[in-house]
């Protein structure tokens, strides 16, 4: 069996200090020059979520997206996510109007709908957003199919969300779905990370930043 | 207002085909030579989770960790996670014994415990694992403090888990906590990603792979 003796590590235990040090390192290492000031919180939280200062070289946005998201949330807009992990990463206390955060992936209607449409459950769940989609904030952290399907449905007449945050990750369709968002012909405001990088943690980080900035940087 | 006209994108909609293509790209781009065969599923799922074939250069493991995790799970071991996002990323249907997946971060006892211990809630929640920790599988996807605290508690006499998967992400303590795990004096089996990379998606991916491989690669 293994040995057993007390071990002690020297590490920061104060949550406020951890956040401050962490965001200070991010600011020191990140090249924020290219990015408008109102998106600095998003850039900082994105780097914080993945540990890679260089990742924001792939950040893409439409003019004014930060203000659009903030206004929608202040107005009580719901937040739709493609997967539960994104919903779990959203800091509820940072949402300004107790905005509902909805993920319909595990809705009982979703599997049948996916089979009928011949697509993924993530994409099918988008059809269940319709009633509340007008002015909502959409956060996609995983499924390219959900993002493609949403854009197609909007083209067919689904209501327009206030903004779409596009962060699918991976090798099949992720980069392409984000390029489709960036090129969307509906003038829907967007924030997206080009290429293969992304994921639920980054998607949630982007929403958290647009909802409430980086308040953890302030000494308390 | 925006223009509205149907758009159609050419993208793969079949979930099985998406997985197959995705894992085929990962295998083509990943350098698996250094990694023992029983950890190839973990390496492949880790890359799939973050979109970065190079990430496995930082993978570290103890001999036999895959078999230890598989045996513990077959025996019904619970899975403990530091954050809800990891728990959400674990594919329940892949667990061999309907293993419970527990995250105590939001337990009502955790905030008081954190205040009393002078540490983060993530670390304090570890104290609530004690009764079921013997032989459990621990998956840390976010908090270095949780990993440090767990190792310290084991040194003080907490029961030993069957294995620890260490994937904290970020700039303050993440790399150090994983080095502490790799150097743990208790001979606890581990799988970890050195450096700043990690996160809940990768942590869940590692557990999913050790629990059930990469069955999505098989044509169906």
From TrEMBL, chains A, B:
Record carries keyword Isomerase: yes
Ranges for domain Cobalamin biosynthesis precorrin-8X methylmutase CobH/CbiC: 18-211
EC primary class: isomerase
Protein name listed in UniProt: Precorrin-8X methylmutase
UniProt similarity note: Belongs to the CobH/CbiC family.
NCBIfam families referenced in this protein's UniProt entry, alphabetically: PRK08285.1
Pfam families reported in the protein's UniProt record: CbiC (PF02570)
EC number from the UniProt entry: 5.4.99.61
Pathway recorded for this protein: Cofactor biosynthesis; adenosylcobalamin biosynthesis
GO biological process: cobalamin biosynthetic process
Keywords, alphabetical: Cobalamin biosynthesis, Isomerase
A GO molecular-function annotation: precorrin-8X methylmutase activity
Cited InterPro entries: Cbl_synth_CobH/CbiC, CobH/CbiC_sf
């Amino acid at each position: 069996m293994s040995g057993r003796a007390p071990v002690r590590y020297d590490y920061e235990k104060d949550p406020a200090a951890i956040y401050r040090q962490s965001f200070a390192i991010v600011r020191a290492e990140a090249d924020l020059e290219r990015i408008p000031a109102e998106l600095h919180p998003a850039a900082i939280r994105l780097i914080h979520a993945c540990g890679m200062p260089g990742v924001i070289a792939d950040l893409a946005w439409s003019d004014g997206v930060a203000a659009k998201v903030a206004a929608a949330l202040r107005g009580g807009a719901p937040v739709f996510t493609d997967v539960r992990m994104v919903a779990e990463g959203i800091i509820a206390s940072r949402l300004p109007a107790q905005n509902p955060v909805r993920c319909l992936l595990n809705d009982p209607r979703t599997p049948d709908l996916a089979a009928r449409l011949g697509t993924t459950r993530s994409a099918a769940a988008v059809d269940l957003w319709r009633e509340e989609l007008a002015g909502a904030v959409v956060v996609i952290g995983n499924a390219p199919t959900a993002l493609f399907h949403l854009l197609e449905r909007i083209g067919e007449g689904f209501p327009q969300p206030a903004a779409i945050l596009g962060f699918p990750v991976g090798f099949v369709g992720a980069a392409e779905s984000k390029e489709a968002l960036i090129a969307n012909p509906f003038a829907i405001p967007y924030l997206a990370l080009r290429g293969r990088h992304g994921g639920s943690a980054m998607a949630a980080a982007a929403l958290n930043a647009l909802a409430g900035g980086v308040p953890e940087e302030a000494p308390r």
